[in-house]
Amino acid sequence: MEKADSAELALPYKLLASYPSGLSRAQVEVIFDKSYDRIPHPDINLENSINEIWDQRVQRNASLYNGEKFRSLYSMEDLLIKVEMDPIKSHVYASTLD
User: Fold this and answer.
1) Is 13 a member of any domain?
2) Tag placement on the chain: N or C end, fewer CB within 10 Å?
3) How many CB atoms lie within 10 A of CB 89?
4) Which InterPro entries does the UniProt record give (predicted)?
């Protein structure tokens, strides 16, 4: 049996923050602002193809939800930076729901 390459063992995501004991309400701040909304791609053909692929996947799996409905952690990079700078107060950025 061959040993797996380290690239194959890599996770498909990067864990930016972990809170095993959780956070209290006082440690979390949520900011709803349109500036965190998704910016459509300028290439309309690409944007349309994204929508078509999404529609196909939703038809195959009805439990998928559109990001507009559940977009609550827009920028984990911002969250990580804020937590490193101020471990007492964490910030979660979220988009507005139209």
Assistant:
1) no
2) N
3) 13
4) NUDT22/NUDT9-like
